[in-house]
Amino acid sequence: MFGRRRKRSEEDVESLDVTSEELAEDAEDAAGLVDDEGDAEAPRVSLPPAPRPDGPWDVSEVREPGEGRVDLGGMFVPGVEGMELRVEVAGDAIVAATVVLRDSAVQLQAFAAPKKEGIWTEVRDEIATGITQQGGVVDEVEGPLGWELRAQVPVQLPDGKNGVQVVRFIGVDGPRWFLRGVISGQGAVQPETGSLLEAIFQDTVVVRGEGPMAPRDPIVLKLPNDAQMVPDGVQQEEAQGSRFAGGADRLQRGPEISEVR
Q: pTM for this one?
């Protein structure tokens, strides 16, 4: 099932601004300031993209990217029996796809990235900061796909009470692109269910294109030619805070399209 979401405000997809004061603070941090207990805090270092022997894939690495996958233009998403596939928009551009399997989901979004530098390390910091500012809890752990964030995000329950939602943020740097995944539902807490969503993430093919793109710009997607419209569904609440964190406040679903697998 495909669903379209619309952005609530233009500010939600703007690039992150850095003030001169923040740059000065970053320079001080990089110089190795010592905290009250005398321990130097090591700065984050951006590294070249790591090898991806098990995916996700660049389109140049796959002979038949459309075989067993749904063609969304900027991504080829694996087709799994019983899945629903929702596409999401910011303005008039489709920028993300969410695969729903029963009570679990993984949102997929690809971004342009520097040619020789990965951005997942700094993106994790941005997401973690946004969630903790909301009062959530974030753990950075080394999972099956490398370093990831496991977060408990404050949400309002249907009865009006406050609760938390468990979400996993996964990411992989590729050649001039970065693919981010947000796993929610049972897939975020049950390893067996999560492994299937991880496999979908790993078998996704990214089509960066050869045109110039600013780092962090979303890679635009398109609807499949045989897509069929169906009524709107219920929005899924996700974490927010960074432009890479997804979230219903940043992408809203409108008309949906059905894809039977």
A: 0.72
Distance, in Å, from the CA atom of 29 to the CA atom of 156, rounded to the nearest integer, reads 36
pLDDT tens per residue, range 103-120: 999 999 999 999 888 999
On whether the CB atoms of residues 246 and 169 are closer than 8 A, the answer is no
Task: Give the list of residues 6+ apart from residue 13 with CB closer than 8 angstroms, or none.
Answer: 7, 90, 91, 95, 218, 243, 250
Q: How far apart are CA 121 and CA 219, in angstroms?
A: 19
What DSSP string describes 24-74?
A: HHHHHHHTT-B-TTSPBPPPP---PPPP-TT--EEGGG-S-TTTTEEE-SS
**Residue pair 49/55 in contact by the 8 Å Cβ criterion:** no
CA–CA separation, 46 and 151 (whole Å) = 23
